[in-house]
Amino acid sequence: MTYQTKPLSAGLHFLATPIGNARDITLRALDILASADVLAAEDTRSLRKLMDIHGVPLNGRHIYPYHDHNGGQMRPRLIELMEEGKSVAYASEAGTPLVADPGFALCREALSRDIPVTSAPGPSAMIAALTISGLPSDRFLFAGFPPSSQGARLKFFSSFADVPATLGFYESPKRVHRTLGELCDTLGETRQAALCRELTKRFEEVRKGTLRELEESLRDAPVKGEIVLLIDRAERVEVSEADLETALAEALETMTVKDAAADVAARYGLKKRDVYQMALAIKEG
């Protein structure tokens, strides 16, 4: 037995769960799972399986489901249990609660009622990816999952163009090629990036290169599994408006407006749409 059963104080106890390898669970997390009066989970089947693997018995306790679709109904019940003096342990489906996870509203509600909230830290896909990506880790911004609609996605990606930090996104394997193409258009093709998938699992892989190189690598070879996409901060290349116009004018001698804008935008790390508008004005003028 690797866990200890001991009294837990009343309140909300967040605990991080493995993102792939079940042995990444912490001893403290196992202690909480064994000792909490009440268990809640984003995915009850995943938590039950994790407890079975590590030999933590339910001992007659019920695991309450708490996720995006039932939060409004389940939250009052969990808060009521805490106010009755119960210790409630909440586990995300994988990784750290509140990181791309529905636990935020539960945390905020508990704090608003002066209910103690604690956290047993552990695995996080974002941090795991950052540590093996080779990209700067002194300053980073986790942006979560991109929106689904086209207009919202482009606006979303463009908002990070000037952020002086490594950017981190979660993305599905079905959309990641599309995402890389949109990032090329909004952040520039030459940004260094790392595509990290299946972290801590058997087929863990990290692909590194520019955004365009990664996009090209997925055109005919789609990937599977959970993905974290990391992008280096923009390199500042000082270019005057006059120099930019000269570069565009030269490019337009042999290229279309679209290709000239893409070429110059990539060369200077600028937004493709802004450069396209300038190229269009030069062509028409």
Describe this structure in words.
Residues 239-283 form the RsmI HTH domain. It catalyses: cytidine(1402) in 16S rRNA + S-adenosyl-L-methionine = 2'-O-methylcytidine(1402) in 16S rRNA + S-adenosyl-L-homocysteine + H(+). One of its GO terms (molecular function) is rRNA (cytosine-2'-O-)-methyltransferase activity. Belongs to the methyltransferase superfamily. RsmI family. This is Ribosomal RNA small subunit methyltransferase I. By secondary structure, this protein is α/β, with parallel strands linked by helices. It has three domains: 11-123, 3-Layer(aba) Sandwich (Cobalt-precorrin-4 Transmethylase, domain 1); 126-231, 2-Layer Sandwich (Methyltransferase, Cobalt-precorrin-4 Transmethylase, Domain 2), CATH 3.30.950; 241-284. The protein contains eleven helices and ten strands. The chain has helices at 27-35, 44-53, 71-83, 103-112, 125-133, 150-158, 176-187, 211-217, 241-252, 257-268, 272-284, and strands spanning 11-15, 38-41, 63-65, 87-91, 117-120, 140-144, 166-171, 192-197, 205-210, 227-231. The strands form two sheets. It has a five-stranded parallel β-sheet, sandwiched between helices. The chain has a five-stranded mixed β-sheet with strand order 6-7-10-8-9. Strand 6 (140-144), helix 6 (150-158) and strand 7 form a beta-alpha-beta unit. It is elongated. The N and C termini lie far apart (78 Å). The model has no long low-confidence stretch (mean pLDDT 93).
User: What is the helix content?
Assistant: 40-55%
Contiguous low-pLDDT stretches (5 residues minimum) are none
Query: What is the number of strand segments?
Result: 10
Q: Give the overall shape.
A: elongated
Report the span from N to C terminus.
78 Å
Architecture of the largest domain in CATH? 3-Layer(aba) Sandwich
Count of individual domains: 3
Subcellular location: Cytoplasm
GO molecular function: rRNA (cytosine-2'-O-)-methyltransferase activity
Domain Tetrapyrrole methylase: 12-214
Organism: Celeribacter halophilus
